[in-house]
Design a protein that fits this description.
The protein is an all-alpha fold. Helix content is 70%, strand content 0%. The two termini are 26 Å apart.
Amino acid sequence: MVQPTLARSWLLAMMHGILGIGAIAGGIMLIIDPTGDAIGLPNTLLEHSPFANFLIPGILLMLVLGVLPMIIGISLIRHIHSALCEKLNLFPDRYWGWTFSLYTGFALLIWIMAQVYWIQAASLIHLIYFAWGIGIQIVTLLPGIQRRYSQ
């Protein structure tokens, strides 16, 4: 029988992994085709944003919500040592991967709020990803998860 805390750790790692895979794919598509046509995003979505095309959002999406969550997901399972990440850890009594899990949840929430603000509309996908960010926060803050990643 799998311990509940271990199962929740895997759930949290999977939440990061799924987010990362989708963001890497979307980011790469936006980098390859900054017009957004390849994934059906009209350039009119950028009218109220500081961006002329989807290149910079694609790079940010790929790195911040793609590569970083993948690294965090792996770190939550494997406990990877990183001096740089430890320096950026606002909670030194916790493993950096736990803290960065919180960072990722906040980054996703900010990303969605910025999108909704700039495109001046919200859709179901925004609600789903907003809920995903809150879900990452909730699972990260579960007492058993906090104990698992205490140093």
